[in-house]
């Protein structure tokens, strides 16, 4: 019998790519999504879909009872850093209490392992050393980052007290096809959408804000590998000699190279053949200056490495926008 995976937020930008890859690799997939940001058109036709919020205790328990998933890939979240600052309570209800609701169901219905989407871009705060390794202390500066760190603590608690194996993947700045250019979209989706419409995008501040940009299909592959190895990895990590190396079973997930907003604009300008320079506006309050992730650990332990470089990823993303949005 093929293993069954529950993917939370499975109609969303990143999770829908994970769903597609799981189905390609002969998993049965169940998706839970409240469609607040996910879209039905992102959903693979082979999934069993539940329009359900992870904060709905009764509904989630009923779904677990019916579906009995072997594994969980937890991607659903309130993803807006700025919204988390404006409304920390809503952020915590979704990202902390919703995740706890899910973890309790995992224990109650004998789930074999869980993979969690954490945030390498926010949990370390404003580091002084680059690239950032997994040993760097947690110093989140937003409620969103705090919520991701909190769930990592809870996952560790559930592993030690309920024997629930898990892996946390600490994403860099994910971009690619299906990213929504509205709302709390990444700068790449916003720029592409505006430039294809002939509008001049605005760069905040001096444009030298640096991030580790990772293509969405590389993120999907990392989730598949984490899922395939979650049981084995949990046994390895429980060995004392390696426990300190893995802070909360967490792996950074990026390309290990930073790119500035100015560089992104320059690359997109060339790909799209955009004739205008960018506008520059005031810096956004609270934006971290620099974030580059050291990703050696996931390469060594899981054999994962990024396959799509920034230039190729941007070309693929522009092509998708042209085919699907314009």
UniProtKB/TrEMBL annotation:
Domain NAD-dependent epimerase/dehydratase, first and last residues per copy: 5-230
One of the Pfam families matching this protein, by short name: Epimerase
TM annotation in the entry: none
CDD domains: UDP_AE_SDR_e
Stored InterPro entries: Epimerase_deHydtase, NAD(P)-bd_dom_sf
Family to which this protein belongs: Belongs to the NAD(P)-dependent epimerase/dehydratase family.
Protein's name in the database: UDP-glucose 4-epimerase
Organism: Candidatus Infernicultor aquiphilus
């Amino acid at each position: 019998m093929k293993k069954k995976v529950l993917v939370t937020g499975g109609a969303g930008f990143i999770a829908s790519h994970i769903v597609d890859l799981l189905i390609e690799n002969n998993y049965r997939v169940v998706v839970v999504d409240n469609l607040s940001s996910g879209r039905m058109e992102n959903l693979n036709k082979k999934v069993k879909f539940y329009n359900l919020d992870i904060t709905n205790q009764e509904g989630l328990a009923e779904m677990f009872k019916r579906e009995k998933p072997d594994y969980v890939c937890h991607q659903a979240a309130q993803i807006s850093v700025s919204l988390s600052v404006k409304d920390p309570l809503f952020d915590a209800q979704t990202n902390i209490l919703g995740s706890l609701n899910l973890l309790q169901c995992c224990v109650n219905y004998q789930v074999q392992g869980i993979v969690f989407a954490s945030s390498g871009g926010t949990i370390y705060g404003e580091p002084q050393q680059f690239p950032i390794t997994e040993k760097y202390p947690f110093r989140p500066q937003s409620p969103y980052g705090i919520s991701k760190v909190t769930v990592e603590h809870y996952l560790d608690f559930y592993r030690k007290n309920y024997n629930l194996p898990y892996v946390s993947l600490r994403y860099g700045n994910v971009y690619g096809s299906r990213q929504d250019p509205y709302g709390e979209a990444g700068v790449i989706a916003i720029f592409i959408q505006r430039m294809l419409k002939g509008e001049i995008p605005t760069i905040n501040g001096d444009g030298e804000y640096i991030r580790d940009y990772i293509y969405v299909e590389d993120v999907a592959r990392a989730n598949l590998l984490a899922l395939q190895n979650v049981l084995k990895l949990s046994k390895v990590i429980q060995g004392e000699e390696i426990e300190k190396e893995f802070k909360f079973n967490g792996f950074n997930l990026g390309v290990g190279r930073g790119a500035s907003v100015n560089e992104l604009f320059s690359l997109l300008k060339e790909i799209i053949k955009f004739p205008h320079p960018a506008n520059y506006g005031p810096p956004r309050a609270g934006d971290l200056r620099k974030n580059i992730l050291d990703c050696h650990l996931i390469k060594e332990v899981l054999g994962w490495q990024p396959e799509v470089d920034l230039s190729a990823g941007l070309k693929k993303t522009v092509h998708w926008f042209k085919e699907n949005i314009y």
